[in-house]
Specification:
alpha/beta, UDP-N-acetylmuramoyl-L-alanine:D-glutamate ligase, eight-stranded mixed beta sheet, four-stranded mixed beta sheet, 10 helices, globular
Amino acid sequence: MNREKRILKPEKPVLVIGAAGVDIVGRMCGEVLERSSNPAQIRTSFGGVARNVAENLARLGQEVVLLSAVGNDIYGEQLLKTACSAGINTDYILKLDQQSTGMYIGVYNAAIELLFALDNMEIISAITPDYIRKNERLFKNASCVFVDMNLSPDTLRAIFSLAKRHRLVVCADTTSVHLANKLIPYLSNLFLITPNASEAALLVDPTKKITSRKQALLAAKALVSKGVEIVIITLGEHGLCYATSETNGYIPAIQTDISDPTGAGDALTATVLFALLNEIPLDDAVRLGVSAATLTLQFPGSVIPDLTLEKLYDQLVI
C-alpha cells in the first residue's frame, strides 16, 4: 500500500480531545448479594479516557493541551485544579453552568473482574464541531491529535478534517465496544489505535470474536491493511499484539498484583505515544507501554502521580 509518511512533531504539544470526569470504583469484599448493600473497597479519582491520556503524557514531561468539558461544580473545579497541577494546559476546557461533570462508576467482584459499569458523559456533547473549529489555532501548533470515542460523529469529522488540513497524525482510543464503530470511517487516517480484543473484532469483522493471540495478530495486520499505521491490540492478562506495515510482534503481560484496573489501557496508550514522540523504536515503545499499564494496575487510581520514564524503565522486565 502506498501511503503518505505521517510525521510526529515532538517539539509541539499533543492536542488531546475527549472525556474528563470523576471515576468511582468499587471492589467487592466477598460474594455479591443482589438487592442488598455489599461491603466493598471504594475509591474515587479523576478519569475520562482523554483526561487520563493527557495526565500520563504531562507527567512523563510532554507538553499537552486538553479540550474537554466539565460542569461548574465542585467536581469540575477540583478536576481542573488537579489537571493543571499535573502540567496539563486546561485553558480551553469548557466550564458549563447547566450540566454536571461527567462520571463513571465501575463495580468489580473480589477477583477484580468487572461486573458492570455506568457512565454519564453527556456533557461531552458540548464539544461541538463549532467549538473545535474555533480552536483551529491549536491544531496549527500541535505535534499530533489524540481523540476518544465519547465525541460525537460530527465532532470527530471536524477533528479529522482539521488534522488533515494541518498535516497532523491522529491517534485514537476505541473507548468501548459501544463506541468503537465511530472510528470505522477513519481507519485510513489513523496513526495509532489501541483497542482491546472485543473492540478490534468490531473494527475488523463484527461476526467473529478474537479469542487467541494468533487471531489478535491477524486482526492487527488487517487493521494495518485498512490504513492504520500502528495497531496495538490488548489482551488483558495475556499481553498484547502489535503490527505495522513493516513489523509485528507479541509481548506478554507482566505478572502483578492488581489493585485497580481502571486507566491501565490509557497509561499504555499515552506511554507508547510519548515514546514515539521521543524517537524510541516501536518495539521498545510498546514494552514501555506495558510497564506503564502494569504500574497503573498496582495503583488505586487512574493515573500514577509519580510517573516518570525512569520509573518505567525500572519496571521493564520483558
